[in-house]
Structures are given as C-alpha cells and as structure tokens.
C-alpha cells in the first residue's frame, strides 16, 4: 500500500507527487508531458520533495521515477531554457542539491527508470545511489549533438561507473544503451519488469539503507578509472573518431568532452565537476552551441504547421501503400515504408524492371530475400486497397499526368495520390484529374536520394490539398522516421528552389569573374559543405542539371540564367561522375571523389589554370550562399515555407549545410550580421557583376532590413484607420479574359459580359439595385453610340432599374481605371452615393484599327506621332532606350509563368465570375454551328513558355525589330467591375471595404514612345498620395508590350518580386477598356492575401499618356485589423 502525501503542480499536466510506502520508502514521481522534460521549475519541485522526504525521520530512502505513459523517464533538460542559462543557473540551490549534494546524503536515493532516460535525466540518475531499469529503458548522453557536453556531472560520473572507454564512447557517439546492456556495463544495478520496477527499486533502497548493499557516491568512485597515463593512451584510440565527428576540428564539443573527462581523471571529480561547469557554459554560448541548439529546436518545430487536426481534419497514417516506379528513388521510398511495417506494392513497366526493383529493396534492407511486406507487379491489381500511392516516375509532365489519370480510376475514393517530383508544379501534374484534386487528395511527397537514408521529407500542399491529406502524410513521415517540412507548391518547392542560384552563380564566377572552379569548390568545402557546386553538379549529372535549369529558366526567368558552357560540355559527353568526366575526372576502378583536371576543362574554363583567386574565400562563400538566402526570403514572403527554421532544416537535411552553423538563414543572421548587412553585401556583388540578377536583393529581404527584423521574418506594414469620407471598393469582380477572335467570348457583346458582374456585385453586398446612382463603363472600340447602348442594356440585364443611368468613358487603355476615378469623383462631389464602375471590351466584335480616322494635315513632328501604331511605339522605345529582345522576351516568360501558376492553383477563382455564353463554330464540313460554353478562366495563359520558344518568333512591326507577338499583350475580350461608396456608407450597411481609392493621376508623354506613360504617371500619383516607391507592397503595371513594361519597371526602380505577381497582359490579355478595372480587382485581392497596405495600378495610354492609381487597405474600425 501507498499513501499519497502531497501533490505539487505546475499546470499543463506538469506535477510532482510523493507516495509514502509502508516499508518506509518514499516514491517521488514527476510528470511533465509529453516527454517529461526537466525544466527549471520542475527541478525545484523534485528537489523540494526529495529533500523533504530524506529529512523525515521515518523515511528510509527515496525512489525517483516518472509517469512514463508516453515512453519517457525523461528526455533531459528543457532546451528551450538554454537561451538564458549561465553559471549562476547551474548553481541554483535546487540543481546544487539534486546534482551535487543528494548523492552524498546518508540516506539512499534510487532512480527507477522505464523508457527514455537521456541527457540531464541520466545525469540525475547518476547522482542517485543506485539505478534500477526495465529492459525497455534506454540511456544516453546526447548533449554533444547540440554542441554541448554533459553539464551536470556526466563527464565525471559516467566513466566512473562504466569505465573510461565505455563512458567516452557513450558520450562522443551519443550512444543509446538499452536496459539489459546498461546492467552489463555497470550503469544500473538491477533490471526489472515495468510492473515490478517500483518494488524492485524500493528493495534496493532498503538494501542500501540496511548495509546489505554498499552505498557508493558515484563522483568519489574511481575503481574503474585507469591511471592518467593509461587514460591518455586510451583516449588516443578515439583520435580518428574525433577528427570525423568534429569535421576536422571545426566543432569544439568533442575535444572539449574528452579534455574535461581526462581532466577529472587527472585531478579528481571535484575539480573535474568545476571544469565541466565552466566548459559547459562556454559551449552553451558559443557559436556552435547556439547553432546546434537552434537546429535541434527547429527540427522539433517542423511538425507545428498550423494545419487543423481536429475531427475530419485529423487524417490517418497509411497502412498500405503503392509506389509507381522501382528505380533507385522508388525502391528507397518502398524500403523506408517497409522498415516501418507498412505493406508496399511497387508498380513497374515490365517483368525485368519489376525483378530489378525487388532486388533493390532487398539490397537496401540488407536481406537475403524479398521482404514479406513487399509486392512487385506490372499492373494495377490491388491498388483499390491502398491508402496512398507515391509516384516516383521520370520527371516528365505528360507521363506523370497520364499516370495520375490512371491512378484516379484504379484507386479508391479516399486514396491519397502523391508525387515525388522534385521540380514540377503539382497543380500541373494534377490538371488531368480535377475531381480528385478538388477533393484534396493530391499532394507532393518529395523524398531526397537515397530515400531510405536521407532524413528529410518535403510535404508539398497545393491550394486544394485537404487538411486530412496533409496530416496523413505528416503521420506517415513520423512512422518512417523522416523529418517533414510542410511547404507550398512552386517549381523546386523549398529546398531545391532555395539552392537553384548556387550553380548559376558558380558558373558566372568561373566564366565571367575568372575564378578557378576548383578554388570555388575548396572554399565551400572548407566552410563545411561536403562538396562545392561543381563537384555537386558532377554527382547529380550535368545533363540533369541542364534539364532542371530549363525548368527554373521558365519559372524564374527574371533572375535565372542558363550556363554559358553547359551545352558545350554535354556535346563532349561530359556528364559528370556517370560519364567519367565533368568538372572533375573519375576513375571507374577507384571509388572516391574525382580528381581536378584543369588542363582538360580549361578549354571551357580558362580560369581553371589560375592559381590565385581575385576574391577571398569569404567572398566566394558569400557569393554562392547569399543568393540562396535571398531566394529563401522570397519563399517565406510567398508562404512557400512556413517559418525560417523549416528553411534551415531543409538546408541541413536536404543540402548538407553544416549543422554546426545552424542552417542557411541562422548562419546569415548570426555570422553575416542579419538582413541589413546581407542586403548590402548582395548589392556589392550586384555592382561587381554588372547587375547579375541573382544578386539583386529580394523585396522580402529589403523590407526585413528596413524594419531591422531577423532574416526570414516578414514584417507586415502598419495599416491605419480610414476616413469616413474615403471612397472605398466594397466588391470587385471580373470575367475570365477571352482570346479575341478565337476564344469563348468571340461572339459575346459587352452587355452579356457586364450583366453577370453587376448581378454579382449586388448579390454579394446586398445593395439594393435602386440604390445605385450610376453605372460607369470604360470601353474603347465600340463605334458611334453602340458602347452606350450596350452599357445601358447591361444595366437592365444585370437587374438595375430604369432610373439608374449609365455612361461610357474612353481614355483608351486606361478607360477602366478612368471610369473608377470618375465614379470616385462623382461620389466625392455628391452626385450619387453608390456607383458601379469598371470596363468592358470586345476586341472580337469591334475592329481594332479605325480606318475612318484621317491624320490632320496640320499635325507635324510630335503631333503627327499621335497616329503612330502602338506596335511602332514599342519599337521606338526599344531603339531609344536600348532594350534588347532578350529583355522583352524574359518579361514575357515571367508573365506566362506567374499567370500559369496562379491559374493552375485556382488562386483567383473567387474574383472571376463564370459567364455562360454561346460561341459560333464550324464543323468539319465548314457548316456553322453554335455551342453553349462557360468562360471561367483567362484563356491566353500558356504553360511552359520559355526563352527558347519565344526566341523563334519573328518581329511583327518592324523588319529586324524586336517586338513580337510573344512579347506583346494579347488582344482579348472581357469585363471587370467594382462597387464604390463612401466608407461611412459601407459601415452603415455592414460592408467590409476591399480597399480605399487613395489617389489618381494622368500624365502626358511623347506620343511616339507612349509606352513609357507609367514613368510619368506613377511619380505623380505617389506625390499626390504622399508615398514613396519603397512603401508600395504591390504593383500592377499593364504589359502592353514587353519593351515599355520593362523600361518602366527599371526606370522607376521597382522590385520585380512584387510587380504583376499573378502575370500581366502578355499572358492574361489586354481588352483595352477593361484592363484598368481588371488590374484593380486583382490588385485588391492580392493585396489582402499578402497582408499589404498599398497597391499601385498603372498603364500606358495610346497617343502618349500614362495613368496610375493608389489603393490602400485600412484597418477595420471595429477591431483594428482585417
């Protein structure tokens, strides 16, 4: 029987209880879910209970144990407390009692250990008079993994119990010793079953207190220690281990542990314990200690994703899985799951491939025969029963799309469909299975090679992936002992995208700056990376590097640059390690790294023959890695990565960034000074390389530096309360943009496009149709009175009563924005309270060229240029400002890339109103027919547009010119509309504004170069708004032509990261009267998503003008936030 005498609680399940047994033994049991960490507050309670029990006359001794329901005696000290730890912390009275005084008390204390007993918990047990463990208990001192040494006597007491060699091995290797082995080593005195543990430990207390067992003070026990000369000789046996573990001496804790242990052998435990304290605190605050502790905490935090886990969101760990493809990657994935007890089916293309797959898995498992949990097949039999399928086929979009289409039909309705792609957009892979995708069943499960060994798993969610799917794959990661990081969907995801700059920068450094490739590699390897960028490229394969480069060239054309020599190397079959020659030369008969071959590669890299570098090793490291930091900041700003720690874990576990530096972002923050110094260093390299784009600081990094915040933390701009008299947008919608003459709207008049938008604005806001004061429509091409008549018709079709008037506005390409500005002015002037304003255009039903327009004979010089075609003005811009074809094409690739990513993700689906219409077609015989369709997307967006594909197009407007159909805006059909009212009216109606119309400006420019209109209009509108370019969070600049858009962006100094983030008119289209309103709708929705404050919309205007408007999102008046 026991008598519970006291319970001391800390809240949150943390508590300490004392139980008085009839035999005179007090059992002190501690609990701190989930891993029973020994926090400082917990140690105070434990010390108080033990001290009180030992001081009681009727207590013969104490048993210390834990509530081990979760398999933990204790994980050790609470590492979260280490940040403020000091020498004084160690000398806290509670710690002094438990770790220094308790072992010398006349009454015995016995540790009863079941479960994990690591770190400070084992040191606590070592301070007891004896230890009793279960067979399932495990013991370890893993402090060296986090840059420390044991700090509570472990270096002194452990060797005294288990012998110097065993003790050093346990500490240096963070060896885990099970209960039975611990008894053999002398670490525990007895082993008992969990049911008998407390009784057996209590008996040991009684045996010690009665003298039947000798009571040993561990720190005074030296029978198992050798003489100091033998100890030094024994320590020499660990020399090779020390060099390997400390990475050639870069990490100090291993040598420190050895030195402190030997110091205690030489000078006794008292001096040894003092030395241990001092060294422990020094290491705790050393760069290595801080870095490794950060890495440890960041790894633990990767599972904190913010994804709901309640109810239907919880998900279940898959029990049966299938893998498509049994190559090196597929077999590795299968191996990892089989080791965890999961049944796996591998699907291969033929019997030979199936047999090879089985052999790979068998070899991975180091088995003589295929495991019982493995089934290899050449068909899809049995796939209906699996919980998850992981596709690990070749990196081919069409192949993966067809596989997923088959998998949708072959699996059950709850099966998770995962892809192991490393670079391809998952929405694109899932494009052929919209039903399964919308159900949330598609996800990325990106393993790193070799999959059964590498610890990282990138779990890639799309905007459609369900919470239950995410949580199921997170649970799978835990079961197969992988560290998961949840990331967003983009080319390269988190890890590979972060690191894509390094190879391109290395190529630039060797070909343009004249730095020897081998010197670059040596500098990175001396820094702590296992290999530099050139050796890594050889390992991956230069053909694969080139293929991946094409993907990045399409996805991030604004900053990605192809290698100037890669194709030449591939022509010579220099593919790297696989072909025997790459940047290095490889001997097929000799294992190990390749050898430098400067003579051979000097034909590609003359710098290979140079002996000295024009820059320092630190410069080389910074030039390679800081662009990766820059890219990581973009990832965090875009929400691809959830937190900086996830990027650090990805860098360490996915790209072998040295853990003793804490990960990529931790290194940049702590060793390179943080955002400000990193930004300045990048700017220095940008100038040094004549504007190499990967060195240009990202918007995210610049904003972080301006706010003086840690790298990776994205500061949100402070929003202010609006004024009741502000005119605000309370609703905004648009149609999809149809391709003129051949798209879904080619036979649809503007009234049929506008009417659904009118209805949507009124329905979502609850505004009464008769409360609308005016309908203002920007439109350009309708001749005569047709535009006014069609706008009036749209008002009736949209549900407006006859007393609501309408008008049309024509300021060419800015008409949609001008109509909004006119509506705002009307409200401010008191003409009406509520206005519907926007734009509509049918470039299919109205001729773009007005043949009736005759030049005025008085028009000369710049006046005459008002008649110049828009295409010719583009060529004029390129000629006057020296814009290259490459610049224009690159902007076009970016436009299509961003628009396609947005469209595939469905990010803008809520702003697009599907419009049912009828299109006229011709059948195979040429007979006209009609077809009912729904236009619900932007039809001009193209996936996979590249510099190569655009480079094949011929100039349109000038022989030997550079403006092509590919780098010009598309002619399109579409409409967009917003609902405007004063903030006070919106508040009265209970409507939440999307944004405030803050300022508007129009400016004139030389008509012959009309495309530069934004360069004149934007400074003017910013001046009116009292803002600078640095304060703007989002830019929507109409891409009439790549030439004028690129010139405007560069001249104004805009950061391209926040310009046309969802693509521009080159991809989406430019229905002239609509564009200003479309940009407004998209900008306000995106500004909200980004938690920004200010957005600018701008465009050039034919005949030589530019227009711009500033929108602002204000704080909500009720609670101060949106």
From TrEMBL:
GO terms for cellular component: peroxisome. Keywords: Acyltransferase, Fatty acid metabolism, Isomerase, Lipid metabolism, Lyase, Multifunctional enzyme, NAD, Oxidoreductase, Peroxisome, Transferase. The keyword Acyltransferase applies. InterPro entries: 3-OHacyl-CoA_DH_NAD-bd, 3HC_DH_C, 6-PGluconate_DH-like_C_sf, ClpP/crotonase-like_dom_sf, Enoyl-CoA_hydra/iso, NAD(P)-bd_dom_sf, Thiolase, Thiolase-like. It comes from the Eukaryota. Pathway: Lipid metabolism; fatty acid beta-oxidation. Monomer. This is Enoyl-CoA hydratase. It comes from Rhodosorus marinus. The lineage of its organism: Eukaryota, Rhodophyta, Stylonematophyceae, Stylonematales, Stylonemataceae.
